[in-house]
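Key result, reporting period 2: structure in, sequence out.
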């Protein structure tokens, strides 16, 4: 594993700073935990619980954490709410639902822009003038007075058909990365430049990032040099997948792993499967990098359950497992940024 200082050098440290901050963040953000060599559960019992949580993003100073809480995948319609937990008196507070969320919709992927002024998210809420209900990308402004009214991103980002568009992440210059099913109904990663106040026609990223399978949940660093995303195969019965995907017993549906690609001289490197315990036979998704550039956060559904079971379970043991934080529902984990294993300068020349 390469050092965080090497990664900062590779990025020119541009991922660590935003020119539009109103105040410098503290030297040690409240999530800081020194070097974290293996994935660690975040805010257990407050943010990560026995419910289903999905990773989002931090405010610039790290004192607010935005995430999504969703109902079970076996229920319909799906419901997701956007939440915030604040660091106060040395602990993370009980989460609150953001004032523009909490309706009968599926809200996901809350990510702040690098200047902290805009939140992008995904939602199934209705779009005025469109009859088709699908997952689309929205944004909402934040000022000193609070949150504004969410607005759907215009075409060509969102489309009037039944294609899904989700997982928005934006660079410092406004370039938007997101997942979309506009490519023959299969999810892949696209980007759109923000030029003269409008989004350009989205471009599908090349084969260094997008595979013949399913890509989603892109996170782009503010300087557009790091892209972390999720990729999943087709699941049973074919089982077609990227060859490095972690497999395990009991897989009844496609489960995603996390990948990283680095941009150099305008080109993306071949996506690399993340190691160091990040990927498991469970589902890993919704990655993000903290505003100080020192940690990777992500969602994982890892649990103590294995198929077949490692040993014969008694009733008390399975009750404890089912009602624990790590019961197979989504939780939020983090690890030091050097787990991305950036290429050496020689590899990138």
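The corresponding designed sequence is given below.
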């Amino acid at each position: 594993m390469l050092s965080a200082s090497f990664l900062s050098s590779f990025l020119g440290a541009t991922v660590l700073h935003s020119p539009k901050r109103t105040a410098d963040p503290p030297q040690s953000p409240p999530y800081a935990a020194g070097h974290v060599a293996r994935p660690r559960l975040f805010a257990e019992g407050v943010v990560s619980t026995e419910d289903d949580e999905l990773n989002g993003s931090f405010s610039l100073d790290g004192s607010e954490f935005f995430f999504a809480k969703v109902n079970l995948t076996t229920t319909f319609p799906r419901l997701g709410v956007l939440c915030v937990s604040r660091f106060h008196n040395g602990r993370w507070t009980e989460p609150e639902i953001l004032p523009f969320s909490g309706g009968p919709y599926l809200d996901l992927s809350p990510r702040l822009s690098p200047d902290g002024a805009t939140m992008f998210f995904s939602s199934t809420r209705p779009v005025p003038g469109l009859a088709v209900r699908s997952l689309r990308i929205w944004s909402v402004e934040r000022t000193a007075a609070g949150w504004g009214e969410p607005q759907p991103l215009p075409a060509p980002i969102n489309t009037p058909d039944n294609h899904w568009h989700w997982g928005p992440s934006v660079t410092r210059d406004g370039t938007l990365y997101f997942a979309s099913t506009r490519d023959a109904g299969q999810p892949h990663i696209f980007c759109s430049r923000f030029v003269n106040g409008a989004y350009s026609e989205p471009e599908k990223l090349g084969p260094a990032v997008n595979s013949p399978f399913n890509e989603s949940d892109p996170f782009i660093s503010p300087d557009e040099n790091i892209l972390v995303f999720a990729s999943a195969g087709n699941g049973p019965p074919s089982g077609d997948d990227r060859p490095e995907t972690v497999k395990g017993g009991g897989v009844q549906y496609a489960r995603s792993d996390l990948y990283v690609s680095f941009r150099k001289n305008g080109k993306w490197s071949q996506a690399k499967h993340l190691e160091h315990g990040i990927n498991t036979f469970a589902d890993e998704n919704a990655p993000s990098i903290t505003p100080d550039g020192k940690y990777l956060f992500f969602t994982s559904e890892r649990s103590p359950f294995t198929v077949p079971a490692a040993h014969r379970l008694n009733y008390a043991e399975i009750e404890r497992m089912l009602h624990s934080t790590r019961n197979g529902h989504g939780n939020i984990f983090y690890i030091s940024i050097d787990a991305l294993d950036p290429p050496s300068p020689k590899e990138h020349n």
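The first strand starts at residue 40 and ends at 41. Residues 1-26 have pLDDT under 50 and may be disordered. This case is discussed further under Risks and Mitigation.
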